[in-house]
Amino acid sequence: MEENVYEVYEDEIRSLEEEIQMLTEKYEDRQQESAFYSDEEILASIKSFQREFQGESKERESSSDLKAQLESLETDLSFLMKFTGVWFTRHSKKTVEKTGSRTIQKHRLEGNCHSLPFQVEFQLLEIKNKESVSAVITDLNIIMESREYSGVSKFVSSIEEHGNLLQFFRSLSSYAQWCEHRRCTFLHFK
Which residues form a coiled coil (predicted)? Predict the structure, then answer.
């Protein structure tokens, strides 16, 4: 009888080890996929999109074209949220200062990354030159209720100090995935 109990536990342990291996491989695959794009490539794509959008906004478009574009953007946003695990639940934007070549906007984002809630507040300083638009994030403030995860506060402080919002979302996504894996693993032992 006692040997049966040990066999059941050993089978469960093997099953968990296989699941951990599978999840680790899945995570490494995703990390490799996201590593294909450098920060410069992402910024170049964003700038290209901004130029394309500015050119299109000058032309008058019919409402059906606008609806099609909106649906396309919603589809893209949905894909990105599923891919990264970052779900935005609220966004507010307020223009603080606007001059001829300089605009300062205050943004506030709220959302969840897997099971971790977050709030991000920052100011976006846009400076328009004749040929380009440059944007800088200032006054970055990240709020995370991390009672269970004490290591997050040091990470958040470092990100706020450097003002690197892209790194925050990349790291948060990875951290939240591993927290989710950890939670699922511990559920097996309950």
Answer: 6-33
